[in-house]
Amino acid sequence: IVEEDKTLPDAKRIRLDDTEDITLGSADKPGTRVKVLGRVHRFRSQKDVIFITLKDGYGQMQVVFAGDLIKTYAALTLTLETSLVIKGQMRELPPTAKAPLNRELHADFFRVIGAAAGDKEAITNKVQAGGDPQTLLDQRHLVLRGDVLSSVMKVRAAVLRAFRQAYVETRCMEVAPPSMVQTQVEGGATLFGFKYYDEEAYLTQSSQLYLETCLASMGDVFCICPSFRAEKSLTRRHLSEYMHIEAELDFIEFEDLLAHIEKVICRVIELVLQDPLMAGYIKELNPDFKPPSTPFKRMKYADAIDWLVEHKIDFDDEDVPEDHPERKRPHRFGDDIAEAAERQMTDIMNVPIFLTHFPLELKAFYMPKDPADARVAQAVDLLMPGVGEIVGGSMRIWDYEELIAAYKRVGIDPTPYYWYTDQRKYGTSPHGGYGLGLERFLAWLCGRFTVRECVLYPRFTNRCTP
Ligand code: 4AD
């Protein structure tokens, strides 16, 4: 153990990204003496010096141990993730060296706070070398300490901040609808049910219906709440619990809805990239990312079907047996464009696409007919390259009788929806809104292969831990 030299100046406690009032010294000129607390992210031992990359969640700092410090037991047995307190002098880097913020800490004292078991690297390396990906998910709490996942989480926080700001700027008010509900929004197939005392209830699939009830008194509204979907299949872009950013706008037409979505998304990107730290993370994670140009491409569903036929991207009809020649056939009007086909199309076009005017029977009960074409709904999906759909939205049926007929068409008992239906009874209005999956937005922005990389602890089929 090396004792602290009490004759040295007091050390100023800083976070690792702190540059305020710090003077960088050199071999013959003293720099500010600082105290830092953090964990070993990487280290490299040489004959008479150890270079440590320390991290504290705010930043990283290169720390140099030399002299008596490297002869200590703690230095000789140092492991990744060990937490330390270190004091020393901030110095300029030697001319050719590289380190975060172009500086390094020359330690004169350190103490181990919590030594780490030396197997973290082994766990993650094993998986990266082609081992069981389940292990990575089981070890998520440790994987979270890596650069990639922690950067995505920091971008996620910045994106959430930016959405809130963009909504303030567009005069939408934040509200918090309930998660435990007794109505469905997006179809019974993906409902998570549970016993609510003695009644049947569900985890919410979307807060849309509740947002609609706020318009009359609060104007345009938004919420950022988890939504839950019991998705049966494992895909790159489906979670059982995801963060749903939803907004509802009063007295609008369909074009206004598209213009608003485009504006909010572009503003969020602009705000996030204005922060140099976030711009840096995004550059690392997704070097090719370019903010989208406006206006976004608009395409009707019927034109997308033609495009798919022309490009020989077939419809995979799951109602037909695997080996039947009709299993894969050209798309037809009325087909639900599947995830793979949608992504192929978006990747080839390589720009955001507003896909609109879907056949009514493919869409939710609350969507109104297009006045110009009764076969299709005034609905929109926003598709992004690499991910596909990140936003789903529509105008809402605002006529009372039409809504009653819509419940009937899909076999929903209107009784528990009385509060939703009432909006059409007390001063109805043309209105619409949308929901955006935060993890899908992040997968696009951060260039991640799956939404599972864009959430702290992913929930999907057969995974509810840690
Ligand atoms: O298209 P969806 O189902 O639309 C609604 O829920 C509307 N009620 C929203 C509204 O108008 N207020 O879902 C909206 C978005 C999708 O575009 C997608 O980004 C995301 O929610 N999403 C999921 N994200 C991750 N995992 C899942 N299982 C998702 N399901 C939908």
Terminal CA distance reads: 38 Å
* Neighbour order of strands in the largest sheet: 7-11-12-21-20-19-16-13
- Uncertain residue ranges: none
CATH class of the largest domain: Alpha Beta
* CATH homologous superfamily placement of the largest domain: Bira Bifunctional Protein, Domain 2
Overall geometry? elongated
Give a quick account of the main beta sheet: strands, pairing sense, barrel closure.
8 strands, mixed
What's the β-strand tally? 21
The amount of beta strand, in percent, is 25-35%
Overall CATH architecture of the largest domain: 2-Layer Sandwich
- What is the helical fraction, as a range of percent? 25-40%
Mean pLDDT: 95
CATH domain fold name of the largest domain? BirA Bifunctional Protein, domain 2
What hetero molecules are in the model?
4-amino-1,4-dioxobutan-2-aminium adenosine-5'-monophosphate
State Rg: 27 Å
Query: How many distinct domains?
Result: 2
Summed up, the helix count is: 14
Described by its quaternary structure, the protein is single chain
Query: Structural class, judged by helices and strands?
Result: alpha+beta
Family: Belongs to the class-II aminoacyl-tRNA synthetase family.
EC number: 6.1.1.22
GO molecular function, one term: asparagine-tRNA ligase activity
Keywords: Aminoacyl-tRNA synthetase, ATP-binding, Coiled coil, Cytoplasm, Ligase, Nucleotide-binding, Protein biosynthesis
